[in-house]
Amino acid sequence: MIQHPDYPNIHQEYINGLKSWDRKAQFEIYKLYYRSMYNTCIRIVGVPEDAEDVMQEAFLSAYSKINTYSGKVSFGAWLKRIVINKSLDLLKSRKQILISVEEADLDLKEEVKNDETDFEKISMESIRNAIQSLPDGYRIVLSLYLVEGYDHEEIAQILGISGSTSRSQYTRARQKLIELLRAGS
How many domains in the chain? Predict the structure, then answer.
């Protein structure tokens, strides 16, 4: 594998070990990346038990596809893409991936108006709970954009939607999140 100069891999020894199905390398990679990948997964699937299942599948998939890792992106970014795809596969299998724009319009007829809500007093747990209560389509786009740092074109590619749909889902997700936080405060 040619190492890309922009993404030097500090865990190259373990990555090399994955190619020979070295159990120690698998364990070390798992320890290094599990928590951050689990956090990504739980934000998408929303259910801890499902996230655990997805994580097992994602790591096994990464181990078996390690020869496709070219080093053009960081190993963590490559693994995160597998985790996201496996998470979305789970939701697709349940036919829960995205609500339509028409359904979103029905839910959000009224514009969010500025009011006296003091958002500084809202706890992180309240925000997390509000995000988890969003419809899947909203939660996924919001998480991919705000938390994972993908832009709308990347989200569109990941989800198989247009960039404008990603932007509108994000806008509606943000509005719905504000409504939920206002209602809970």
Answer: 2
